[in-house]
Write a structure and sequence with these properties.
Layout: E1 3-6, E2 9-10, E3 20-25, E4 28-29, E5 40-45, E6 48-49, E7 55-56, E8 59-64, E9 67-68, E10 76-77, E11 80-89, E12 99-108, E13 119-129, E14 138-148, E15 157-167, E16 176-181, E17 184-186, E18 195-200, E19 203-205, E20 214-219, E21 222-223, E22 234-238, E23 242-247, E24 251-263, E25 274-284
């Protein structure tokens, strides 16, 4: 049985330090750092967090209908079993070295440097904006994602994304084992230096996208204004549409209706390693 804390104004450093088995409702955590540090088995409903480091070294936290304001930055670090729903996280630099995170119907208007070095992340119907989102995290499942921000998912492993809309330069760099379904991604230099990167039924807009990738698969994708693609990548590309330009793929197969420009520099790659299957090439170099 959890102790009920209802409609309280909590201030001062470590206001509920090492709290346990608490049901906190309609309460405000005002000035004062680390109000719930080292707490566990906490339910939060309609709570407001207005100052730094609210949930460090915590375990088994459920939060709903709540808000982390801008100054609640670096809010959830070194914690585990965190579930947040129907909430707004305005503060940047949230979630560091945290495990087993579930975010459902959550908005992150300033998600800069959020979700770093985390593992076991599930996101459903999340909206976020900010650079360097989800760096060096692993075991990520996303369904319904609206995102604006550069350098997202750098260094991530074991990622599955469904139904996303991402405006993100340098997304999915240095990644391994990433699959993206039914999504729209716009941004330069998509996916560089990654391994086992797959896109299924996606629409891509990218300058020099999908380069330096080992084992790139793109199934039934559409390319909008995508130029100088696939440089030094091993590829398995299948599209019924047009690719504006392709530059020096390292090997594999590209199947398309049309390639606007095909650049194959024999002094840089072996053109015979790439099988080009298409209806028309407008210009070959």
């Amino acid at each position: 049985m959890k102790k009920l804390i209802n409609q309280k104004y909590l201030s001062g450093e470590r206001a509920l330090f090492q709290g346990e088995n608490l049901n906190i409702q309609y309460s405000t955590f005002a000035d004062g750092e680390s109000p719930l540090k080292e707490s566990h088995d906490i339910e939060l409903d309609h709570c407001l967090f207005k100052w730094k480091y609210p949930l460090w070294y915590c375990k088994n936290i459920t939060m709903k209908n709540s808000t982390l304001f801008e100054m609640a930055r670096a809010g959830i670090w070194y914690s585990s079993q965190i579930k947040i729903s129907d909430s707004v996280i305005e503060a940047p630099k949230n979630f560091r070295r945290t495990r087993d995170i579930t975010l459902e119907h959550v908005t992150l208007p300033d998600a800069a440097e959020t979700l770093w070095n985390c593992e076991g992340i599930t996101m459903k119907d999340v909206t976020a904006k900010g650079d360097y989102f989800a760096m060096s995290s692993k075991d990520i499942s996303i369904d319904g994602f609206k995102f604006v921000g550069n350098y997202s998912f750098d260094g991530c492993r074991n990622v599955e994304v469904r139904g996303a809309s991402m405006l993100s330069k340098d997304a999915f760099w240095n990644c391994e084992n990433v699959t993206v379904y039914d999504s729209f991604i716009s941004g330069e230099y998509l996916g560089w230096n990654s391994k086992n990167l797959t896109f299924v039924n996606c629409t891509i807009e990218s300058l020099q996208g999908m380069c330096y990738i080992e084992n790139l698969k793109m199934i039934n994708c559409r390319f909008i204004n995508t130029t100088l693609a696939f440089e030094y990548s091993t590829v398995d590309i299948q599209t019924d549409g047009v690719i504006d330009s392709v530059m020096n793929p390292y090997g594999g197969t590209i199947q398309a209706k049309q390639i606007g420009e095909l650049i194959m520099d024999s002094d840089k790659i072996n053109p015979k390693k790439t099988n080009i299957v298409l209806e028309e090439i407008k210009h070959a170099v």
